[in-house]
Amino acid sequence: MLLDIGCGSSSLASKRRSSVGLMLLASSLLAACDGPPDRTPSLGDASVQRGRQLVIQHGCTACHAFPDVQWPRGGLGPSLEHFGRQGLIAGQLPNQPGVLMAFVRDAPSLVPGTAMPAFPMSDQDARDVTAYLVQLGAR
Length: 139
What we know:
two-stranded antiparallel sheet
């Protein structure tokens, strides 16, 4: 007669079966998901031209070069002439409209230690600047 005291081979096999069952359940649940919800704000009403004007007005051209701004063409920050093709913002964040909107408003909160200052602006201003930036050098 076998007596299962919880530390024998039958108990270990039972724990393995339970672990495998949990992993299968978790895999099934993950496979059923479509991924995280898309919380990207719409840029549908954004104005590329207004975004360009805001970039000049906020002095972004003092640090960055833009393809359609002749002066000033700053060299302190990276050139943004092909920004729409970049995969990352500041080499760290995914180049997605929602992330970019947050970054142009308050870069230091997203990338501590960055030289880019915070630019308090309205949602519409951030949308317009984002619309301008994502179309630069876009494919």
